[in-house]
Amino acid sequence: MDSFELNKITGGVLTALLFVFGVPEMAYILGGHADAHGKASMGYELPKPKAAASAGGGAPAAAAFSFAKVAAALPAANADAGKEAFRACAQCHTPDKGGANKLGPNLHGIVGREVGKFASFTNYSPALSGKGGAWTWELLTEYLHDPKGSIPGNRMSYAGIKDVAEMADMLAYLRTLSDAPVALPAAPAAAPAAAAPAEQKK
Length: 202
Known about the structure:
mainly alpha, single chain, Cytochrome Bc1 Complex, Chain D, domain 2, 7 helices, 36% helix
């Protein structure tokens, strides 16, 4: 038997298999089929994408960052972790007592210091030098979380700390940069549990 005859036989077998298995499948697709509820449908049904959560349902949006949440996290804050996080600040600020100013002022004793008034630093932006007041825990939290939003017009190019625990660690570390550390703010008192409604009299 030569190769031509062998090719003809092989082609015939493949054609028969295609007819046996392909025709019923084609009829299934074109003729429709019933779904799990017995409803006829044409062709194949593609998987549907997961619906995005609507405004009135689904998973709730992440709660907003707040000083109250940071204050609540302070009892568990780790000053050593805050020192590690301070590495992102070290290219512009020194933390040690008597340290040199860089692009920004030395931060030793920053808590309680007047905003924009460190005597040996002369490169404050008008936004900071004109801010007034002192660096309280709350103002530091707002500023380190969103520098541009907290004091618009300042020159500090820093994206900000977005994580509550990391912010608490940073504040705990900044507190150590002082000869007389300022007390950390107390955690907010937990809201009292709502009283159960009185049983209605019958």
